[in-house]
Amino acid sequence: MNTLLIFLSLFFTPPKSVYDFTIKTIDGKEVKLSKFKGKKILIVNTASKCGFTPQYEALEKLHKEYGDKVVLIGFPAGNFGGQELATNAAIQDFCKKNFGVTFLLSEKVSVKGADINPLFQYLTTQSNPDFTGDINWNFEKFLINEKGELVHRFRSKVTPLDPQITKNF
């Protein structure tokens, strides 16, 4: 058994920060999150057909106002009531036409369940002063500090420009 653990540890090192992850953008490019070392990152699970979808407007405003201090990344997901469009192209088109989104969007991912994206598996289990555990709904937010550590987590009702979030920039 010890030999197996040693063997596995050679090939699987648990992530130490978000910088250990690579994402695929909505247009298919790979981006290493380590590219953002030294900057704060705000990660948001998004959806195009949700009551919270108007937060896209505030997210874009946050991106324009604070983009020099924080990298904003939206992660479209259909985990809650199938409220995300079917394809990356449709999501990208919806976001640009309706909200003028220019911030970084990932490809459509799963943020909960058996097929959870590894980044969200990591984020939902990291200790922070707020809470841990599964994402409850669309537009939850994860604030990462300049060292790649989760420092705050916000539920959907906390809007992107709420002082609880912006005081961190």
List the SSEs and their pairings.
Blueprint lengths: L1 H10 L10 E3 L5 E3 L7 E7 L8 H12 L3 E7 L11 H12 L4 E2 L12 H6 L17 E4 L5 E5 L8 H4 L3
Parallel strand pairs: 3-4, 4-5
Antiparallel strand pairs: 1-2, 3-6, 6-7
Describe this structure as you would to a colleague:
This protein is of the alpha/beta class. It has a single domain, classed as Glutaredoxin, CATH 3.40.30. It contains five helices and seven strands; from the N terminus they run αβββαβαβαββα. It has helices spanning 2-11, 55-66, 88-99, 118-123, 163-166, and strands at 22-24, 30-32, 40-46, 70-76, 104-105, 141-144, 150-154. The strands form two sheets. It has a five-stranded mixed β-sheet, covered by helices on one side. Strand 4, helix 3 (88-99) and strand 5 (104-105) form a beta-alpha-beta unit. The longest helix is centred in the middle third of the chain and has 12 residues, at 55-66.
Summarize the structure.
The chain is α/β, with parallel strands linked by helices and 169 residues long.
Q: How many structural domains does the protein architecture include?
A: 1
Morphology = globular
Which architecture would the CATH scheme give at its second level?
A: 3-Layer(aba) Sandwich
Overall SS class: alpha/beta
- What is the number of strand segments? 7
Q: For this structure, what is the CATH homologous superfamily?
A: Glutaredoxin
One letter per element, helices H and strands E, the order comes to HEEEHEHEHEEH
Offer a few descriptive terms.
18% strand; Glutaredoxin; 169 residues; alpha/beta
